[in-house]
Amino acid sequence: MAVQLTVPAADGGRRAARRRDGPVARSGRLAGRVALSLLQAVVVAVGATSAVFLLMRLIPGDPARILAGPGGSVTEEQIAMTRRELGLDDPLPVQYWDWITAAARGDFGTSLVLGETVSDLLGDRLVVTAQLSAYSFWLAVALAIPVSVAAARWQGAAADRAARLVGSTGIAVPSFWLALLLIIVFQGYLPIFGYVPASESLVDHVVHMILPAVALGAGFAALVFETNRAGLVETLGSDYVRTARAFGIPEWRVFGRYALRNAFLPTLTIMGIQAGALMSGALLVENAFALPGMGRLIVQGVLSRDYPVVQACILVIVVIFVVVNLLMDVIYALVDPRVRRSRGRA
Amino acid sequence: MAGPETAGPGAAETVAAPRASFQRRLLATTGQKVAWTIVALFVLAALAAPLIAPFDPNAQDLRHTLQPSGGGHLLGTDDFGRDQLSRLFYALRSSLVIGVLTTFGVALIGLPVGLLAGYARGALDVVVARAIDIGLALPSLVLALGLIAAMGAGLRSTVIALIVGYSPYLARVVRSVVLQVRQEEYVESARVTGVRPWRIVLRHVLPNVLGATTVQLTLIFAFAIVGEAGLSFVGLGVQPPSASLGNMLAEGANYTLEAPMLAIAPGVAIAVLLMALLFAGDGLRDVADPRRSR
Amino acid sequence: MTAPLLALDDLVVSLRSNPALRAVDGIDVEVAPGEAVALVGESGCGKSVTAYSLLGLLAPGLAARGTVTLDGAAHDLADGDRLRPLRGRDVAMIFQDPLTALNPVMPVGRQLEDVLRVHTALHRRGRRSRVLELLERVGIPAPDRVAGSYPFELSGGMRQRVLIAMALSCRPKLLVADEPTTALDTTVQAQIMDLLRDLVHDEDMAMLFISHDLGLVAEFCERVYVMYAGRVVETGTVRRVLERPDHPYTRALVDCLATMGQGADRLATVPGSVPGTDAMPAGCRFAPRCPYAVDACRTTDPRLAPLPDGGQAACLRIGELPDARSGLTGQAEGTR
Questions:
Q1: Residue C208, beta-bridge partner list
Q2: Chain B residues within 8 A of C230 when measuring between CB atoms
Q3: Which of A121, A100, A101 is nearest to A110 (CA)?
Q4: Which is deepest, A33, B239, C55, C144, by most CB within 10 Å?
Q5: Partner residue facing C49 (CB), from B2, B5, B9
Q6: pLDDT (tens digit, 9 = 90+) per residue, B118-166?
Q7: Which of B32, B134, B170, B228 has the most A C-beta neighbours within 10 Å, making it the best mutation to test the interface with A?
Q8: How big is the A-B interface in CB pairs under 8 Å?
Q9: When comparing pLDDT for B286 and A117, which is higher?
Q10: How far apart, in Å, are the Cα atoms of A292 and each of A130, A131, C81, C163?
Q11: CB contact under 8 A, B257 and A187
Q12: Mind telling me how many Å the CA of C156 is from chain A's nearest CA?
């Protein structure tokens, strides 16, 4: 999906728990704030992974029966034994604990269909998906932030209007369709399909990743652009920017220290929320470009009901998403003293 | 009335008459008129697909596969020689069904959960609020993949997966509005005078939440359409031979060289519809939910 | 009057999109060195726009025209950026809402340092100690602690003191105070006004005080310009204007204050409202609300004319009006 639902206002309010007339704080409570964010992240991670775990238990069919061997040739006794080996007779919390601790050690079990261990299957594919997501993220940020600054600086100019038009179009273009468009346009000029590891040839690696990264990053870039531009327009019209100007602070400094820094807060929130959409989108874009990432693996897993594989893929994505949001929370607290110095959420 | 002094940077703008009808205010700008017209046209095309489709969407003609546009096939034919335009109309039908069902489902789950999380106090609030956070920590598409693994691919699973995936977003918005509303004086005084909680929620809180909910549901409708396309694109959503925007794209992906139109047309439909819906949602926000409008 | 420190000459502020719509329509304002001058009127009459155009700080949709002469040097008001060298150094400004006027994510000490960095040659350490001096100067009890605080951690009065310290930092010749106490509690309001008065006196600054509160004006200012719908309608010494107002608009304002001073339970207001820039009456702009208006007032636009006892007023019927009630300044004390 190119975009996930975004509600800047609601989330901004959630994070910027303002206390108007709070006491003069003693010293930065950053450590406390980080600890709180960490605790919340752990609660969310446990909840989300439990949900994933339970979900996989809903899959019809007895994994023990599948794993024990082809139908008909195995006795009930053998199945029962497999069940015990897999721990499927244990209470659910025990099973969850066994699964999650094993996963923490890198042991995700064995694929029911492919016969390999899931960690072997995941290994390189995870790297490809992570690379694609990361490249798209940085490509988008590197493009969207400077353009949004320029657009806000020359508000209403033709270039600003053009950038906004491209931005609102970009939000509406699904990444997997943009992938197809890029393929149609660039087939014959650039190698379209496949993957080359950076260790093998950096140039080939970049050449193979550029179109997927553009396809995946475009919608994200458009969203970052719109958010940051809107934020800048607001802060540039704010009273404190007027004060800074009234006291003769040079315009470049007004822009950097006063306007951009404040405008960046909602942008940061959007980036955190969208990180999930970015990774989901990576799964789809990989399919279009035949990149050997998690996308193909998870789709095959879903189709063949290979629950250890699906479970592991979702677990990995959820954990990355939670960690990314934790990082965003910490950066947010670093930038915004109102969050850092107030106790927890309102 | 307001002189330039009292207004901010947008000083010169005049304020619309406050009592104009909802419809008048919604369609106040040309952009809004265009956006809602496009949405209406798409809905009409989907509803009237059997009437306006020039061919049976599933009729194969293996002698005329991958034809370019022309010869009675406005958008050409696909790899089975099926008329692409007719399939597009029927695909819009799938999208509309999925969009509407998902939107209803999300409203049915997200609204009560959000009201509960916002209005309840104590342990219940904490539990429901955390549940929403957990829901948000599972990227919708990834959650949908998990649900489809459990239920099998298909239209029914797609709808359920999208409902589960998007409900937390509505719940969060509703909760945050409720948190604001419950601090208003009239709600406080209702509480102090002993009005029953469910009555307060129905009489005072719900009406305030509806604006934000409507806006959010417009977006959810839009994202359900993209969500279906994404899932069907990788073969987990609507199953062939039924046409959907996503599985048409998936087919088109195989013929980017021979018949690029197969991959272009459904995508244009998605992008145009999505853009219109997002724009319409913005307009709706300005009218129905002024407290959140930018 | 000695040579003025500030002379604003024929200031016009209009909408860029429609220059015929004027928020300020040709006004002259003068401030002598060390003098406290008030600009009064209802909101929407062009007071704040006048102040902002002085420093080239108008909203992007507005354009200024005219000249400002500061300390003998003339500057064109049309190009706001050219006025930048004046900002903070010659003219400092403080604002209505001290919460939004300070950067929320920067400690206030750092914001003060930023101003010092631009206008002084002080080095890092020098700036630090100057910040503490300034904060102490405006009556902040624990300057080092406050310097490290963020605006949201300070009370409204403290924030306004910080802004005043910022204004003092470069020893400007003129302080423009745009409704500096409107957002504050009454008791804090009095403290801030006392502080302002002392500072203006000690530092020998002139002050352009923008307010709708005639009580404050009566107490703190020497001369006053009464603005209505983008024009100056009356000017003169505070004593004369408030005791014996000549213009019917000034009279209406003074009456409001008198009513409030007598403990009226409702906030007294001038009936009607200021016309918008797009609906200016043809003749006298106050005529639609004026109890003394005659037919000529609706067709002839009066210009400022000298009054026999000094000052100026823009009214066709000066001299024909019944005598103004007097004794306002005595009552004004009660409003604070």
A1: C37, C176
A2: 3
A3: A121
A4: C55
A5: B5
A6: 888 778 888 888 888 888 888 888 888 888 888 888 888 899 999 999 9
A7: B134
A8: 186
A9: A117
A10: 12, 12, 56, 59
A11: yes
A12: 9
Answer whether CATH 1.10.3720.10 is correct for domain B29-47+88-288.
Answer: yes
pLDDT above 90 (res A332): no
On whether any CB of chain A is under 8 Å from the CB of C128, the answer is: no
Query: For residue range B76-91, what is the model confidence (pLDDT) as tens digits?
Result: 777 777 888 889 999 9
Separation CA A311–CA A299 (nearest Å):
12
What would the two tokens of residue B173 be? 């918005």
Lowest mean pLDDT among B44-53, B55-64, B272-281: B55-64
Token look-up 């994404």 returns B230
Measured from the Cβ of residue A142, the count of other Cβ atoms closer than 10 Å reads 12
Q: Which residues pair with B158 in a beta bridge?
A: none
- Nearest Cα to B234, choosing from A324, A209, A180, C56? A180
The 10s digit of each residue's pLDDT in C60-100 is 888 899 999 988 888 898 887 888 888 888 899 998 888 88
Average pLDDT (C215-236) is: 91
pLDDT at A89 over 90: no
Helix (H) or strand (E) segment spanning residue A68: helix A63-68
Quick one: DSSP state of residue C7? E
Cα–Cα distance measured from residue B61 to residue C325, given in angstroms and rounded to the nearest whole number: 99
| Rounded distance between C-alpha atoms, residue C211 and residue C221, angstroms | 11
Nearest CA in chain A to B229: A1
d(CA B205, CA B116): 11
Dist CA C260 CA C215 (whole Å) = 10
Subunit partners of chain C (3 or more CB pairs within 8 A): A, B
For chain B, how far is it from start to end, CA to CA, in angstroms? Answer: 22
pLDDT score recorded for residue A15 = 35
User: Is CATH 1.10.10.10 the classification given to domain A31-60+108-345?
Assistant: no
pLDDT at A10 over 70: no
pLDDT digits (tens, 9 = 90+) for A201-239: 888 899 899 999 999 999 999 999 999 999 999 999 899
**Residues A291, A296, A297, CA angle at the centre, nearest 5°?**
125
Pairing of strands C305-306, C231-237: unpaired
Is there a cis peptide before residue B197, judged by omega within 30 degrees of 0? no
Q: Strand, helix or coil at A341?
A: coil
User: Alpha helices, DSSP H only, in A92-192?
Assistant: 92-104, 118-153, 158-172, 175-186
Query: In this structure, which amino acid lies at residue C325?
Result: R
* Token output for B17: 């008459």
- What angle (nearest 5°) sits at the alpha carbon of residue A183, between those of residues A285 and A320? 15
Distance CA A123, CA A220 (A): 26
Best of C40, C43, C228 to substitute, by most chain B Cβ atoms within 10 angstroms, is C43
Residue with tokens 């906030």: C267
- What ipTM does the predicted assembly reach? 0.84
